[in-house]
Amino acid sequence: MVELKSKNTKVGIDAGELVSFVVNGHEFIHQKGSPGWGSADTEMFPIIGPVNEAGFRVKTPKGDAVQDQHGHLRQMEYQLESQTDTSAIFAKQYRSGAEIINSKFPEKSTEEALTWPYDFRFEKSFLLKEGALEINFKITGEQGMPFMLGYHPAFKLQSKSPIIVTKDKKITLDEVLAVGSRAFQVADCTSVTLKDEREITIETEGFGNFMCWTEVRNMVCIEPISFYPYAVRQKDLHQGFQQLDRSAQFKVILKPEA
């Protein structure tokens, strides 16, 4: 476990996963073991969304890739590269065509191993600043590699009627629950505020959109995404790709209320 500390703030990171963000004694992150989801955060890369209806295949310029829901990056382990009292850098390295064991097989998937026809390096770094936690993502790889990126943090809820606020709308927890597994779309948006017992704002750079998901009332996932996957049929998921220009950077800033 990596711990970052600064004044009234403590951050817990377990093998690259943000498992705790405590400010003035208030825990903002959903805890493993609580109802709703078995993780606290993860990344969706190089695809976002399910592919079961497309035979677990995604089109790329180098042919079909074997992928499962939200991509194969989450099936790989992070390596800690460096850390200080207020920062930590983790990375994953992938070689084109390498088989990655799929944890969803055989209960939830027909694919035992996942593959991708491109090399890439994925870096996730944490920086604890005054009043905020900054999470940076850096992707480096082959020129023109297609990809999507989504960040999937889960926030702990402590009030009965939390509200998700954007620049032009207010979204209730009931609205998110009603959409179900498809996730509630928040298009063309770079900042969202979760108003609960304590407020926290999620600011982003590079993503451009959010989606919100939960199936319980004690947590909600507020997910910055580069593409909303349910805008197309699963066999057309490639329409949501952007192309890598050697490298790309994305940022998420978690800002609790002062």
TrEMBL record:
GO terms for biological process: carbohydrate metabolic process. GO terms for molecular function: carbohydrate binding; isomerase activity. It comes from the Bacteria. Gene3D superfamilies: 2.70.98.10. It holds the Pfam family Aldose_epim. SUPFAM superfamilies: Galactose mutarotase-like. Keywords: Calcium. Its cofactor is Ca(2+). Monomer. This is Aldose 1-epimerase. The lineage of its organism: Bacteria, Pseudomonadati, Bacteroidota, Flavobacteriia, Flavobacteriales.
